[in-house]
Design a protein that fits this description.
The complex is a heterodimer of chains A (334) and B (202). The relative contact order of chain A is 0.08. Chain A folds into three domains: 98 residues, no CATH class; 101 residues; 107 residues, Immunoglobulin-like (Sandwich), CATH 2.60.40. With 334 residues, chain A is of the alpha+beta class. Chain A has nine helices and nine strands. In chain A, β6 and β7 form a beta hairpin. Chain A has a five-stranded mixed β-sheet with strand order 2-9-8-4-5. Chain A has a four-stranded mixed β-sheet with strand order 1-3-7-6, with no helix packed on it. Helix content of chain A is 51%, strand content 16%. Chain A starts with a helix and ends with a strand. The C terminus of chain B is likely disordered. Chain B folds into two domains: 88 residues, RNA polymerase sigma factor, region 2, helix turn helix motif (Rna Polymerase Sigma Factor, Chain: A, Orthogonal Bundle); 74 residues, Arc Repressor Mutant, subunit A, CATH 1.10.10. Chain B is mainly α. The longest helix of chain B has 34 residues. The chains are: A alpha+beta (334), B mainly alpha (202).
């Protein structure tokens, strides 16, 4: 039996549509007969409206042009951008637009939108492969039809040669047979040409498929590194170390982080978490190799691995006694 | 000075429909709007048309005063319009509550000040709400279940529900305070002995 307080507590998740079927039914049934919880529902809707506020578009445009937005506390705005992924993404789009304004050499091509969900990179090759397949099918069908016709004609020719019609004159049969044989030869020639075309189309299709496979592999292939950052550990390994001197990385480029290991190596292994400003671990790895010669850990961040915000990289020593924090490093992504 | 003259001439030619001027500004519009293409691909042509109309309206009303270059001005207008469109496209729809409203034949009570809250007021409330409340509610608005939120925040589900409720109460209390303060200010301003503010023309 679910208590009144529990049902009341589920109202916000009734509104955001994430209660499962039973929970939703229970809450709705309760609401039908509880005036206090109906008021709670209305209040929750109003609270959602409050918490779903974002800085005006003009503020993001001002930030993109390195101006201080009017009427908004800069510290609050910066804090909001750390916790609001959608606003951070919108600011990045505005900044990208500004870069286009500044560099007049860039003239991005505008692609026409299409209803299909495929990415543009795949679409062209897919279309070409499909066209090749269809052409092959048409050619194969043509070959098949010609083959049937040739077979039928050959059978007819064989029948005429083996059993000339009674009463037919030898000269007339020979001329007719010769014409039929010529026709068969022409058909045969056409068949070979069509077969040749079909073979060419099949080869092209195979080549296109090969290119499609290469492109699929290229997605996971190594990419050139955008930049390399050498990070020093924070003095405080506990959460909350101020990231005043944290390097700022661009989300859109890949980065290799060289984490300077200041502590003496006393553990059998190391693990790592990347923690966002709210203390949530957004990525973890159970094994982080340490380069003993250079006292370094190396982490590779692919482009857009992290969204805009402040992060702490926490390195733990692992071994018989479990995980022990040993180093932490601050980074900012924008 | 020469730049300002050129810009004004470009505006004049654009409004007159001069093909070259229209082409130049169209190119700027497409470049400025390009980063938003992926988010607004489903209505890209309409978006560009909306932007053109907005720019034509602003230039026609003489809103471009030469404080920046025409190009920068146009770039910023495009960004403003595109951001509004991105936000409109991504507006989250809450669960349809008609089922609840029809349940017992009665409507849900309205929030105290009605459905259309002043955005400025709501923003001022948000500025005063503690950060942990904002983070928690942002997850809720983003559509996370209470189980997901409980895991991410590392708190028990019961604790999460209590905190969410307290944050809601804080936000509504702040809103009431601000509304009360606004009403008091309005009453004071309208009092006969109070000096009247002259509304400045913009």
């Amino acid at each position: 039996m679910v208590s009144h307080d529990d049902l009341r507590g589920m109202i916000p998740w009734l509104l955001n549509g994430t209660l499962d079927g039973d929970e939703r039914r229970q809450v709705l049934e309760h609401l039908a007969g509880c005036a206090a919880c109906k008021q709670d529902l209305a209040d929750t809707r109003l609270a959602a409206e409050i918490f779903d506020q974002h800085p005006p578009a003009a503020a993001l445009v001002a930030l993109a042009w390195d101006e201080t937005p009017e009427g908004i506390d800069p510290g609050f705005l910066a804090g909001h951008l750390e916790i609001c992924a959608s606003c951070a993404a919108e600011l990045e789009m505005a900044r990208m637009s500004r870069r286009f304004e500044e560099d007049g050499r860039i003239a991005p091509l505008v692609r026409r939108p299409k209803p299909a969900a495929d990415t543009p990179v795949w679409r062209g090759w897919k279309a070409a492969a499909l066209a090749a397949s269809l052409a092959g099918a048409v050619a194969a069908n043509g070959w098949f039809q010609a083959s049937r016709l040739a077979g039928s004609l050959e059978r007819k020719l064989a029948g005429q040669v083996e059993a000339p019609a009674a009463g037919a004159t030898p000269g007339a049969e020979t001329a007719e047979a010769a014409r039929a044989r010529q026709l068969a030869a022409e058909l045969d020639q056409k068949l070979r040409e069509v077969e040749g075309q079909a073979a060419t189309l099949r080869a092209q299709e195979k080549e296109l498929r090969g290119r499609l496979d290469e492109m699929a592999q290229a997605r996971t292939a190594p990419q050139p590194v955008g930049r390399i950052e050498n990070l020093q550990p924070l003095g405080d390994v506990v959460r909350g170390g101020e990231a005043g001197g944290a390097p700022t990385l661009a989300a859109r480029t890949s980065t290799v982080l060289l984490l300077d290991a200041a502590h003496a190596e006393t553990h059998s292994g190391h693990a790592v978490d990347i923690v966002d400003a709210a203390g949530r671990a957004v990525w973890s790895a159970a094994e982080l190799p340490r380069d003993g010669k250079n006292s370094l850990y190396v982490l590779s961040l692919p482009a857009r691995a992290l969204s805009a915000g402040s992060y702490t990289i926490r390195v733990y020593g692992t071994g018989g006694t479990g995980r022990e924090p040993v180093e932490s490093y601050a980074i900012r992504v924008d | 000075m020469a730049r300002e003259t050129d810009d004004q001439e470009m505006v004049t030619r654009f409004l007159r429909g001069d093909a070259e001027a229209v082409g130049t500004l169209d190119g700027w519009i497409a470049s400025a709007a390009w980063p938003y293409q992926r988010r607004l691909a489903h209505r890209w042509d309409d978006l560009l048309q909306d932007v053109r109309l907005e720019i034509t309206r602003l230039l026609g009303q003489g809103k471009f005063r030469g404080e920046s270059s025409l190009r920068t001005y146009l770039w910023r207008v495009v960004n403003h319009t595109c951001l509004d469109q991105v936000r409109a496209a991504g507006k989250r729809q809450w669960t349809d509550l008609e089922e609840i409203e029809r349940g017992d034949g009665g409507l849900l009570p309205e929030p105290a000040a009605g459905r259309h809250e002043d955005r400025d007021l709501l923003w001022r409330v948000l500025e005063r709400v503690p950060r942990d409340c904002r983070e928690m509610w942002r997850m809720l608005i983003a559509g996370l279940s209470y189980r997901e939120m409980s895991e991410r925040l590392g708190v028990a589900e019961g604790t999460l529900r209590v905190r969410t409720l307290r944050c809601r109460e804080k936000a509504l209390a702040l809103r009431s305070d601000l509304l009360g303060a606004t009403s008091t200010n309005r009453r004071n301003a309208e009092a006969p002995s109070a000096p009247k503010r002259v509304k400045e023309a913009i």
